[in-house]
Design brief:
Layout: H1 6-15, E1 19-22, H2 31-41, E2 46-49, E3 59-61, H3 67-73, H4 79-90, H5 98-114, E4 117-118, E5 126-127, E6 149-150, E7 154-159, E8 162-167, E9 170-174, E10 177-180, H6 184-190, E11 199-204, H7 208-213, H8 224-232, E12 237-240, E13 247-249, E14 254-267, E15 281-293, E16 299-301, H9 310-329, E17 333-337, E18 346-351, H10 358-369, E19 376-381, H11 389-399, H12 402-405, E20 406-413, E21 426-433, H13 455-470
Parallel strand pairs: 1-2, 3-16, 4-12, 18-19, 19-21
Antiparallel strand pairs: 2-3, 5-15, 6-9, 7-8, 7-11, 9-10, 10-15, 11-14, 12-13, 14-15, 17-18, 20-21
Helix pairs in contact: 4-8, 4-9
């Protein structure tokens, strides 16, 4: 059975020795973030901060700080295996006969079980009489940051009939106001459906799978709550907002319901996941309408900085969820990897190459699907392990002629968090074709063959090697 909520998951972590409680007082000003970073870098446990100097609600952090804990969210099953159900749903065909119809009915029932389930019951039944965002463990994580930020709230927003969510840092600027770090295209998208107002619900402490899916670049028209339902094996319970026209997970810890005021204000600088401070820029102001919570809510907090931190594990989770979908769109893809150190800016993809220019075709498709990420894309042959940098660098070294095999696209959309472009949000893409070349790509000549010994010679060498190694006298330590 999937975890119903965050608390159920934390109980499992505590039973496994993967959760500790800190009774020593810490401050949300720099101290909490420093502790969290050191815990994650050392692959340490999740932690509940029980005593906070500023008398905020208690906080929990580093919940997803190791891959082993990520796997616990899906009950030990690789997320990629869970995500294959999405491709099966996309391949669904209308029934052609009575037997097909009976089979399809069962499939439709299964599909229906993944959709969000509306409920009127929620443990977030405490309405805050006084709205005060400073009662939440909003943190200042680096010295040059101008104030406190909420770092792990999932922001739900309506776009027409669709409701989706993602993670955006939120700078608290008053008891009842905060800034939402929406890039320009995201802001225009929010108003793109003729809405005269934009409402948001910022939800803290959802069940672990729904939390992780919030960081996955799910391609439209899929909604993230549906994807979460597929990965969980059952739909997420959702409740109607009480002051906003939105639905969000019912079994969370706390929700902030609010509305964009139409104003903007300077946000930042902020020490982001690239390990540098982001620029100061105006972002939308949200006025809080209401806050609802559990009786004693526990608020998740995460921190950013040089990788690999908690967001690096979100990247690994996300690529496993997206890979089956990518292979449906681009069946030539064998494997796909976003190293967490690469901040989602570096992709390595292996393909079964069939025609001249095939690597460039894959580059174009991936950049079209994910325009803001994948700044550097390396394409290798099907027999290269994309997770083995030794193999990848060998492919680049042996098969790349820079004049022929390097693609640079200028004036391409870029993530504003990427510090490298001189114009924030507008950068370039680099593609490296590290595949073996076909004759049409190699001046009409056959590409040099890889060196390889006959199988029987390799087997005999293995046998000899085994005998030789057995004769080695190893010194005792």
């Amino acid at each position: 059975m999937p975890y119903k909520d965050l608390r159920e998951f934390l109980e499992v972590l505590e039973d496994k020795g993967e959760l500790v409680r800190l009774k020593e007082e810490v401050s949300v000003d720099l101290e909490m973030a420093a502790v969290l970073r050191k815990l994650t870098y050392s692959k340490g446990p999740a932690v509940i901060f029980e005593r906070i100097k500023e008398n905020t609600l208690p906080a929990v952090g580093n919940v997803f700080g190791t891959w082993e804990r990520i796997l616990l969210t899906t009950e030990g099953v690789d997320p990629e295996e869970k995500a294959k159900a999405l491709t099966e749903l996309l391949a669904f065909r209308p029934p052609e006969g009575i037997l097909d119809a009976m089979k399809s009915l069962g499939e439709l029932r299964k599909v229906a079980s993944y959709f969000p389930k509306r409920t009127s019951r929620t443990p977030m039944d405490v309405e805050w009489k006084e709205i005060d965002l400073f009662k939440l463990p909003a943190i200042r994580q680096w010295p040059l940051e101008p104030g406190r930020f909420l770092t792990f709230g999932a922001t739900f927003v309506r776009r027409g009939e669709s409701i989706n969510y993602g993670y955006y840092r939120l700078q608290v600027i008053a008891k009842d106001k905060f800034l939402v770090h929406w890039m320009p295209w995201r802001r225009s998208e929010a108003y793109a459906f003729g809405q005269d107002k934009v409402e948001v619900a910022v939800v803290f402490g959802m069940d672990p799978v729904t939390t992780l899916v919030g960081g996955v670049p799910v391609p439209p028209p899929l909604e993230k709550l549906f994807v979460s339902g597929v990965l969980r094996g059952e739909g997420v319970e959702v409740v109607e907002g009480r002051t906003v026209d939105l639905r969000y997970p019912a079994n969370a810890e706390l929700v902030i319901e609010g509305e964009l005021t139409g104003e903007t204000a300077p946000e930042g600088p902020y020490g982001d996941h690239a390990g540098v401070y982001s620029i100061v820029k105006n972002y939308p102001v949200v006025r809080v309408k209401a806050i609802y919570s559990r009786e004693n809510p526990l608020i998740p907090v995460t921190t950013t900085g040089k990788p690999v931190l908690e967001d690096g594990h979100f990247i690994l989770f996300g690529q496993k969820v997206v890979k089956p979908l990518l292979r449906t769109i681009l069946p030539e893809i064998v494997d796909f990897y976003m190293p967490p150190e690469g901040l989602s800016y570096v992709f390595v993809v292996s393909i079964r190459k069939r025609f001249p220019g095939h690597a460039r075709k894959v580059m174009s498709a991936l950049w079209g699907l994910t325009p803001l990420i994948g700044k550097i894309l390396i394409v290798v042959d099907h027999d290269v392990d994309v997770r083995d940098w030794g193999q990848v660098l060998y492919a680049v070294s042996a098969h790349v002629d820079p004049r022929r095999d390097v693609v640079v696209l200028e004036d391409f959309p870029a993530e504003e968090l990427d510090p490298s472009p001189s114009t924030p949000g507008l950068g370039s893409k680099l593609g490296i074709d590290a595949t073996r070349k076909l004759p049409e790509e190699y001046g009409g000549k056959e590409y040099p063959k890889d060196v390889a010994a006959p199988d029987e010679i390799e087997r005999k060498a293995d046998e000899v090697l085994s005998r030789l190694l057995s004769q080695v006298k190893r010194k005792k330590p």
